[in-house]
Amino acid sequence: MNIHEYQAKELLAQCGVPIQLGIACQSLDEVRPAAEKIFASGASRVVVKSQIHAGGRGKGSFKSGFQGGVKLAATCEDALAFAGQMLGQVLVTKQTGSEGRKVGTLLLTAGAHIKKEFYLAVLLDRANSRPLIMASTEGGMDIEEVAEKTPEKIFKEWIDPAVGIMPYQARKISAALGLRGDLIALGAKLISGVYKTWWENDATMVEINPLCVIEAADGKEALLALDGKISLDDNALYRHKNIQAMRDLNEEAPLEIEASKFNLNYIKLDGSIACLVNGAGLAMATMDIIQHFGGNPANFLDVGGGASKEQVTAAFKIILMDPHVKGILVNIFGGIMDCNVIATGIVAAVKETGLTLPLVVRLEGNNVVAGQKTLAESGLTLITGTSMADAAQKVVKAVAA
């Protein structure tokens, strides 16, 4: 699950990471009081930031023609004017695609006197089965671009999950970023706080870009997390009621929301051949083989290893909500899954939905004979695939016809 920047900063602040004063606003009526409060705190400028689950907001453009999802306001009137151009409008960035995202929340923050920008992130290195801290002196840039052009500027430190981040490791990262004097200790404290945020909230990634050296009001240098992005492990959300409350359904595709109600893993794609598969690896292979034979998958849909008849029926209904779907491929390998349960669900779903689209079914594994018998005796018009390749070719041909 993804959360907004203002929500990420709340979690970071709870773990001792320094952030600037910020106020989230969902309506124009909230903007002026928020701006006045920030200016009253001593800020010379207020930053108005669109809140969507996508990067590149500052360089994005609204479908209304207004340019930029992040603006600097010198007065309360400026902040209100910018907010009027952003709230309720659709922002298009390089990460949203052409459809863009509607802005329902703005974050107003105090502007900062930035002297230097860094990149900092904590994520799980699956190859090493350890948390990984990545840092770079090239803050404010896409880390992919830094990795491609100047990989030597990315510093990596692996953490032993049994003991957590050690003080010497935090100081080591501070030094690698070129921090000196009092900033080394401040940096080590901040880095430890970012790791704590990652660990205690069961995050898959915590990213601060940029992490900044700023000139504070007293003229001294300080560190500040100017931006924050956190992705969380859905499987651990039951342990975090406070984070569950941060879910913004307006940022999620309606079909994906519906699928989550039935514990189905669904991601909508832009093709015409829907897939219903058990197991993420098999689902990915199914999408690949459809593409290999000239088709385009309409979705990733993993019903899991123990799907019920009700879940299979719900999966069919969700698939048929996508108007771009022209055919369906069911590819099941029964291990834990009982093929006859899937077959029973298919029969029920087709009868309930009145399916008229081409349907290709490939069953293999646990109780497959019973499953095939259920399908054969159902009276349904469907196509049987003897293998994954055979099924993929048949559904591509059926959709093309």
Cα-atom radius of gyration:
25 Å
What's the pLDDT, averaged over the residues? Answer: 91
Which fold name corresponds to the CATH topology of the largest domain?
Rossmann fold
Q: Class by helix and strand content?
A: alpha+beta
When the domains are counted, the total is 3
- Could you state the oligomeric state of the chains shown? single chain
Overall spatial form: elongated
Number of helical regions: 13
Assigned CATH class of the largest domain: Alpha Beta
Q: Could you name the ranges where pLDDT drops below 50 across 5 or more consecutive residues?
A: none
Structure summary, number of beta strands: 19
Q: What percent of residues are in strands?
A: 25-35%
* Corresponding CATH superfamily of the largest domain: Succinyl-CoA synthetase domains
| Helicity range | 25-40%
**Main sheet?**
6 strands, antiparallel
The appropriate CATH architecture of the largest domain is: 3-Layer(aba) Sandwich
**Distance between the ends:** 39 Å
Q: What would you note in describing this structure?
A:
- Strands 8, 9, 10, 11, 12 and 13 form a 6-stranded antiparallel beta sheet that branches. The protein has a 4-stranded antiparallel beta sheet with strand order 1-7-2-4, covered by helices on one side.
- The chain folds into 3 domains: 90 residues, 2-Layer Sandwich (Dna Ligase, domain 1), CATH 3.30.1490; 131 residues, D-amino Acid Aminotransferase, Chain A, domain 1, CATH 3.30.470.20; 148 residues, Rossmann fold, CATH 3.40.50.
- It is α+β, with helices and mostly antiparallel strands and 401 residues long.
